[in-house]
Queue: 3 jobs
Job 1
Amino acid sequence: MAEAALSADRATAGAVLTKAALRAAQLLGLTHAALARTVGVSESHISRMAAGQRQLEIGTKPAELATLLVRVYRSLDALVGNSDRHRHLWMDSYNQAFNEAPRDTIQKVEGLVRVVRYLDGARAVI
C-alpha cells in the first residue's frame, strides 16, 4: 500500500513538473524543439507532453533538467518584473557571460547550469 501511495505521489509530481516546464518554456519563448534539446528528449516526446499523453518521470535526467529550466524562468521573472517583453529580450540577446544568447546556452546541460547560477548571482543581495 505504501508503494502505491509513493507511486501516486511521484506521478502527481511528474504531472506538475511537466506542466511547469511546458509553461516556463512558453513564457521564455522556447519552441518545442528548443525545449526538447534543453531537457534531452525528442520533439515528439514534448508534443505528447503538451497533449497530456506523457509526463516527466521524477528522478530522471529530463526531470532534473526541466527543474533547472523552471528555475531559470522563476529567477528571470523576478529580475524583469513579470515582463514578457523583457524576459524574451534577455533570452534572445547576446550575453558576454555566455558568449551567446541565453536561449542557445540553455540547450546544453552545462549551459543550463551556468544560466541558473548567473541568474541566482544576479538576484543575490549584496
Note: Helices lie at 2-28, 32-39, 43-50, 61-80, 84-92, 102-105, 109-123.
Job 2
Amino acid sequence: MDLKALSASLNLSMTTVSRALNGYSDVSEKTRQRVIEAARTLGYQPNSVARNLALGRANAIGIVYPLEAGDVADPRFLEVVSGITEGLAPANIDLLIASASHKGELDSYDRMIHSRRVDGFIVARTLVQDERIDYLRQAGVPFLAYGRTAKSDDYPWFDFDNEAGSVLAVERLVRLGHRHIAYIHASLHYNFAHQRHAGYLRGMHDAGIAPQTDWLLQAGLARCSGYAAMEQLLARPVLPTAVIVDNNLAGVGAVQALIDRGIVMGRDISVIVYDGIPPDTLLMGRQITSIIQPTQQRTGERMATLIQQVIANAMPLSELQMLCQPELLPGDTDGPCPRH
C-alpha cells in the first residue's frame, strides 16, 4: 500500500491525503480522521524519507569532530557519544559524526547544512575564539556548544565550571603543604584548557604562590604527549612536589612516566588529574586523586535533551545554558609535602 493507492481508495487527491497525515490545518478534522482510519485499516506505512524531506527534517544531529589520535582510544569520549545516542533514540533521531581536519571543519559544516543531512549540530571541543560558533549563528542553524567560548551570552551551551575545578585541585595541594606545584595543560586555544589554566593561576594567587614558569608545560591531548611533558618536568634541576594535569588523556601518560621512573605518587610527588584516567590504565593498584564531573553517559544524555529543545525553539535561552559544578574525588596519589 502506497500513498497513491491510499488516495484512490478514499477518492481524494494525494496532496490532501499527505497533508491530512502530516497534520496540516487546512484539512478538516473529519477528513483527517477518515484518512488516518483508512491508513490504519489498509496498513499504509508512510515513506519516512519522503516525509522528512517534505517537512524539511532529517531526524539527525551532526557532530563535526577533528578526531585526534587519542580520541578513539578514550573511553570517556565514547561514553559521551553513547549518552547522546541513547538520549536521541526515543525521538528516532540519529547522531552523525563527521571526522574532519581542523582546516576543513567549516567546509564539512557547509556540506552537511546544504545537503540537509542534519537538523542541528553539537559543537564539541570549543575554542576561546571559535569561528564555528560564528558560522552557525550567521547561518541560522540550530546548535548546542559542548563548552563555552570567550563570548557565551547569546547561544545555547552545556559546560562544566572548569576554572572552579582547578581551584579545588590547588587548594587541596596547598592544604597538604605544597607550594611547588607544576601544571601540565592542553593547548590554551581550547576553552576548557584556558579556563582550567585560569583556575590554576587563581588558586596559586589566592594562596600567595607565584607560579614557576618552567613548571608550566603544554602537552597534546594524547598519552605520549603527557608522558613527554612529565619527562621534561623530571629533567628540571629543581623538581616540584606536586603536579596537576588538566586532562585525562595527557594524564595517563604523565602517570605512566612516574611509574616507569619508580617514583611513588603520594609519597615522592603528589598528582591530581582532571577527569581522572581510564580504568584500563595500569596504576599498580593506585587510585588517582581527580577532579570529576557528571558521568560522560549522563553528560551525553543531557546534551541530547538540550539540542532537541534548541531545535524545538520552545524554551528561553537561559534554560538552554547549563553549567555543572565539579567535585574533587580523593585518591592516594597525593599526600603531605615531603619537604614541608
Note: DSSP finds twelve helices and twelve strands in the chain.
Job 3
Amino acid sequence: LLLFSSGKMVCTGAKSVEEAKEVVRRVVKKIKELGMDVSDEPEIEIQNIVATSELNVPLNLNNIAITLGLERVEYEPEQFPGLVYRVEKPKVVALLFGSGKIVCTGARNEEEIREALDQIVKELTDSGFL
C-alpha cells in the first residue's frame, strides 16, 4: 500500500477487488484512529487488474509472432522471453510464454480480462496454434 500526502492511496497485490477495498477500509479506520479527518467512504477506482491464465499447451512464439505480424505483437526473445500481444478493445496487454502461460494486464475489470483472453484464444485457434 502506498499512501501519499495528497491523500491518495495505491493498493497493489490484492487477489481480488473486494480484498483491495477491504484494505482501503482498514487503512481509513487506522487513520481515523490517529485523529485525522478522513471520509468514511473513500472513492475507490480500479486502475489495473493483472491476471494469469494457462492454455495447457506449449506455444511456438516465433511462429506466432511471424503469423500475427507486428501490428499488435512484439517478440524479442533476446530481451524478454514472452511475446507481447496488444488487444485493442478492451485495451489489454497480454504476455504469452512458450509454456502456454498468459499474463494479462491493463484491464479495469474481470470482464475485460475474459474478453481479451477470448480474443487471444480465438486468434491462436484460427491461426492453427491451438
Note: The chain has two domains: 2-33, 49-126.
